[in-house]
């Protein structure tokens, strides 16, 4: 009886249930199955499942509600180089679906081979992301879509030119008349279409999601130990929280970069110098190089950067504190990060309308 009572306490703490009934004449027990016991011992607890469970619906703002035809149009525009000044690059050039919707170079070269200061951030799960850009200067996707188009260090274009080009393409005229019959081709309808499509860019289910949903064998023991490090001694969870693994906040993580980040924006206090947006970690293994400036080529070096507490030449965020970690533990952290990437194939780029 004492052993069974102890089992009841342990399994209840793990979220499992063992029902026990006893009287003076007979004892009857209902046992959990071996599979349920294994899940209780190796799977996430209820609080973890709640904290990291994927949402079931994509949020869209009331003034740009989801429409399938707008998303289809936005996808064509996203992949169309006619939106850039020289018609050589598109949004997808820097936000490449084959590289986690980021780019594998550091930093990004523009139309005129001018080199930007920052690595292109991934736009996966951007529907849940605010503010936008590394420095947080855009509040909405509609605001964000304007920036790269006009930036001379990126697409180096203007909306008058874009509208003129699109109006010469009969298929685009038909699409805009269908989706926006009262407006047609305008800067606003181009931007709203792009934003609608980008909100549909959602990371696929990953092994971590299967584990969170109750499949205890979905990730390895090594990855589970990495997850415990991630939310424990390594302190990663301080900034990389929620199902997307970001707090959507700005932090100074001690990089050796002259870029002031959010602190360079008008009206921001100097205390925000070197503060940059926390990126989500979905599909992170596909998105090298890392950090806002693309200065760290591998995840192993990223982990060492944090373990060292960042560099010492700037004021670090209070959450960035050095910690001791072995090479084996770094392997475990990387094994966990690998479980955040989906094996789902990337969708094909659309067929673009001919001139």
Helix content: 25-40%
Distance between the termini: 81 Å
Instruction: Name the quaternary structure.
Output: single chain
What about the largest sheet? Answer: 2 strands, antiparallel
Rg estimate, integer Å: 24 Å
What is the number of helical segments per DSSP (H or I, 4+ residues)?
13
Quick gist of this model?
The chain has 355 residues and is mainly alpha-helical. It is built from 13 helices and four strands.
Please tell me about this protein's structure.
The chain has 355 residues and is mostly helical. It folds into three domains: 2-42, no CATH class; 62-199, Cytochrome c-like domain (Cytochrome Bc1 Complex, Chain D, domain 2, Orthogonal Bundle); 207-338, Cytochrome c-like domain (Cytochrome Bc1 Complex, Chain D, domain 2), CATH 1.10.760. It has 13 helices and four strands. The protein has a two-stranded antiparallel sheet with strand order 1-2. It has a two-stranded antiparallel ribbon with strand order 3-4. A hairpin with a 4-residue loop joins strand 1 and strand 2 (27-30). Residues 1-26 have low confidence and may be disordered.
